[in-house]
Design goal:
By secondary structure, this protein is α/β, with parallel strands linked by helices. It has one domain: Ribonuclease Z/Hydroxyacylglutathione hydrolase-like (Metallo-beta-lactamase, Chain A), CATH 3.60.15.10. The chain contains twelve helices and eleven strands. It has helices spanning about 1-25, 40-50, 105-110, 125-135, 145-155, 160, 170-175, 185-190, 240-245, 250-255, 265-280, 295-300, and strands spanning about 55-70, 80-90, 95-100, 120, 140, 200, 205-210, 220-225, 230-235, 285-290, 305. Strands 1, 2, 3, 4, 5 and 11 form a six-stranded mixed sheet that branches. Strands 6-7-8-9-10 form a five-stranded mixed sheet, covered by helices on one side. A hairpin with a 5-residue loop joins strand 8 (about 220-225) and strand 9.
Length: about 300
């Protein structure tokens, strides 16, 4: 009898260890090499061909933040917390602005809440973002997930927002599932204003399709008037540590968090390798993931980000 108890206990331990490894560690290393290198030289050439004033600064509008164990953002990191920021960015020109990202509304942020003690939401900041969208020349997003699209999908004035939307085909196709209630008629007639190819959408701003996290994912390369170069990478990773460590998110996070779950893990592995190599080759390039709050705070202290919008 004791032998059977021991055998069963060992079996359970093996099954638990296998499940632990599969959910938290397996299939999480970046590619050893990638054919899909990020060609910054071609982006610079497109930027050089453009005419007009380049943007002068980038402002971050944070509507909320939350905290989760670090391993949820980076496989194998079993110490510390990952504090995630929910935000949109305002790209400022001398005579206009562009908004990138729709952040998340309060109802969705409440549904997504992980930490009862650390989660915060600022409805006033969300309202500021909604207003900034209507004064922007263009409104884009890095990808079609609920924490990046709600300000677009649920904007209270869709008729005024729609002419400003610069979206690709997968982003438009995904939009209805995030809308509460009936889809506004203006949204049923939206046409892609992005081609699905690398293209300039304004002086100093290049859009680069990078499907993987979602079908409509894209990175955005920005060259400021000062010459500083910034690469917005959306949710290819949630933390800069993932690029340094060549680790992606664990399988567990993909199953529990992504709604809808579009992610192609093989594509993400190649993109993380490409970002790692690009960061090594271009040390002056500022790479910005959407949700790494501690890193975003540092960039606002001594880098290219300005935290918040000016007071009217």
């Amino acid at each position: 009898m004791l032998k059977w108890i021991i055998r069963i206990a060992v079996l359970f331990a093996v099954v638990f260890a296998a499940a632990f490894y599969w959910l938290l560690m397996s299939s999480s290393g970046a590619a050893k090499a990638t054919p899909a290198a990020l060609d910054i030289a071609s982006w610079r050439a497109l930027t050089a061909d453009g005419e007009g004033d380049r943007p002068t600064e980038i402002r971050l509008i944070e509507v909320g933040h939350d905290s989760a164990p670090a391993f949820a953002a980076q496989a194998g990191k079993f110490h510390g917390q990952h504090v995630t920021s929910y935000n949109a960015l305002q790209i400022v020109y001398p005579d206009r602005t562009i908004i990138i990202g729709g952040a998340v509304d309060q109802d969705t942020a409440t549904e997504m809440k992980v930490s009862e003690s650390e989660a915060r939401y600022d409805p006033a900041a969300y309202d500021v973002m909604l207003a900034a969208m209507l004064s922007a020349d263009q409104v884009l997003m890095t990808h079609e997930h609920l924490d990046h699209i709600m300000g677009i999908a649920r904007h209270p004035q869709p008729d005024k927002l729609a002419p400003r939307l610069v979206l690709n085909a997968p982003q438009i196709a995904a939009l209805p599932q995030f809308i509460k209630g009936e889809t506004p008629p203006i949204y049923t007639t939206l046409k892609p204003r992005l081609s699905g190819e690398i293209e300039a959408i304004a002086p100093g701003i290049i859009v680069v399709p990078t499907p993987g996290h979602t079908p409509g994912s894209q990175v955005i390369f920005i060259t400021l008037d000062s010459g500083e170069e910034i690469l917005l990478i959306g949710d290819i990773v949630w933390t800069m540590g993932s690029i340094d460590a060549l680790k992606i998110r664990p399988v567990l996070t993909q199953y529990l968090v992504f709604k809808p779950d579009y992610e192609n893990r093989d594509a993400i592995k190649q993109q993380v390798r490409a970002l790692h190599d690009l960061a090594a080759a271009e040390p002056d390039l500022t790479i910005i993931p959407s949700h790494d709050r501690a890193y975003l705070k540092r960039l606002s202290e001594d880098g290219p980000l300005v935290w918040g919008l000016p007071t009217p």
